[in-house]
Amino acid sequence: MMNIMDASKTTSDLIAAVSSDLTPTERRIAEEVLTEPTLLAFGTVSDLAELVGTSRPTIVRFANKLGFDGFRPLQKYVRNDLSHMLARPSERIRRGNRSVPRARTALNGAIESVFSALDGASLTELATPLAKANNVWILSGETSQAGAHAFHSGLSMVRPGVRALEERTLGNDLSDAGPGDAAVVFDFFRYRRQVSNATRTLADAGVSIVAITDSPLSPLVELADVWSEIEIPAIGPFDSSVPVVAMAELLVSQVARILEDEATERIDRIESLWETTEVFL
To answer: Where are the chain's structural domains?
Structure first.
């Protein structure tokens, strides 16, 4: 069966290669996949089966015929193909990406990918370096700024020494980072050169790297001490911020659980200062 990491053909290429062997029902599946690839990329077996008017096992057999060991490997392949095809916001507009029902399906799938990525001990593995570090540095690409901001805002409430790296002060800030520190890096396809270079500088300085990205092929993976893969669908012309914000909030929550008393005391001090300075009406 095909391995997504070694694949270079588009979804259309795969279907064309087996077109003569497809049954009438499989041809209807292929037509739907080619017309609206986002349904396969972010929907479920049941979604596709219902649309075509067939059964779940038939969808799985279609995936097998294309060379995949089941529906999920095919779905991951199509997501990768689609993310590259629709990398440019202008191309997404031309393709009418996407209707509200399909956006809902895509966002639900993306949120599910966040919880799947954090199954078992994964959340603790990601959060522990951030709880134990002397300082935590936050670095982000443009499309993941919302997640980075949510993470900075929340983490600053539960522990000290949290610093967001910005382009205008990047050189000065990087000179302060060193062993005992940790960095959280958010970046997704069309990976930013500056983010990759800054991450490498942090890693070379002995900083522990926690990477949140969207593929094992991300340049962040080779630099990370621990990393997590989540799905970032396109909503309209731009990548969605919803899954990365969800990931950021869950990480902050887990760091607070690890720090427990220290986090509670810090939050109480901040709340007291807010009252003293009459921050809120």
So the answer is: 4-85, 116-276
